[in-house]
């Protein structure tokens, strides 16, 4: 979408090939309970275009999906997108100095020629489902989180979640209270920390500042980008003289490890039998 917007401004002709029926990428495909950003969405947003009126600091999936659709319209690139169209092959014609791209469109096979070909397919377009022994005999509903059924009613059900990654960390707290039983299968533990006010909505005063105070929105966006980007760099640099490389990278990294360790221990409470299974053996971040 950003590349399309830039090309549109420059007056350069282009086409975007999209296999789905709508823009949105991961926020179109993921609709599981609790789905949302773990980065402040004022930073997790485009630098171009009008300021979006986010409802909260960490917006849910529905807001982000709407934002992507609105951006496609505002940037004027929707007319350049060929939806429900999939690239099947691409080759460079050395003699003619152009790309020959074969696509499968709703109306049938087609061929596109272009001077430049950009791959922007992302990392999560095809869900990976591992082959587990006995899967073919399982009689319940089984699906990847990117294929969450819209008609799924979890009330009173026995649910198994495989994995403790980011998606699991959003799903599990959201559904735990309504299911009859919840089992989580973990390969390796993950660091976790609390984010105070994660679900808080933006106040009217904060919205006023973002909408009307000159340069405030740009400053706020920059501060979020720095805090969650370059601001984390000191925590990631390996200090060769640090005496505890088995648990952390440097002194500041070790402080964050201690904060997250205390959080995990407080959540486990008297379940001391789970400490060894829930505390990662690798440095934070």
Could you explain the architecture of this structure?
The mean pLDDT is 93. By secondary structure, this protein is of the alpha/beta class. Strand 4 and strand 5 form a beta hairpin. Strands 3-4-5 form a three-stranded antiparallel β-sheet, with no helix packed on it. Strands 1-2 form a two-stranded parallel ribbon. The protein has a two-stranded parallel sheet with strand order 6-7. It is 30% helix and 13% strand.
Question: What are the SSEs and their pairings?
Answer:
Blueprint: H1 2-10, E1 16-17, H2 26-29, H3 61-74, E2 81-82, E3 86-93, E4 98-105, E5 108-114, E6 158-162, H4 166-175, E7 181-185, H5 204-212, H6 216-228, H7 233-236, H8 251-268, H9 275-278
Parallel strand pairs: 1-2, 6-7
Antiparallel strand pairs: 3-4, 4-5
Question: Could you name the key traits of this structure?
Answer:
285 residues; alpha/beta; 3-stranded antiparallel sheet; globular
């Amino acid at each position: 979408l950003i590349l399309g917007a830039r090309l549109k401004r420059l007056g350069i002709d282009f086409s975007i090939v999209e296999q789905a029926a709508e823009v949105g990428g991961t926020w179109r495909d993921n609709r599981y309970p609790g789905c949302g950003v773990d980065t402040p969405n004022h930073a997790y947003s485009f630098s171009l275009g009008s300021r979006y009126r986010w409802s909260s600091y960490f917006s849910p999936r529905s807001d982000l999906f709407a934002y992507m659709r609105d951006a496609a319209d505002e940037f004027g690139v929707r007319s350049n997108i060929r939806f429900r169209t999939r690239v099947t092959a691409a080759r460079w014609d050395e003699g003619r100095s152009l790309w020959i791209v074969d696509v499968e469109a709703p109306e049938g096979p087609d061929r596109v020629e272009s001077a430049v070909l950009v791959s922007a397919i992302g990392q999560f377009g095809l869900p990976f489902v591992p082959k587990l022994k006995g899967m073919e005999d399982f009689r319940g509903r089984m699906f990847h989180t990117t294929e969450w059924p819209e008609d799924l009613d979890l009330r009173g059900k026995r649910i198994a979640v495989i994995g403790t990654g980011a998606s699991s960390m959003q799903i599990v707290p959201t559904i735990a209270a309504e299911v009859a039983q919840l089992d989580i299968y973990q390969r390796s533990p993950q660091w976790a920390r609390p984010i105070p006010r994660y679900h808080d909505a933006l106040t009217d005063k904060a919205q006023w500042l973002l909408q009307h105070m000159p340069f405030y929105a740009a400053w706020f966006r920059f501060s979020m980008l720095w805090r969650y980007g370059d601001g984390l760099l000191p925590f990631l640099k390996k200090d060769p003289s640090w005496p505890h490389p088995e648990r952390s990278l440097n002194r500041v990294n070790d402080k964050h490890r201690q904060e997250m360790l205390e959080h995990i221990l407080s959540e486990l409470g008297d379940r001391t039998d789970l400490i060894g299974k829930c505390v990662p053996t690798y440095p934070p971040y």
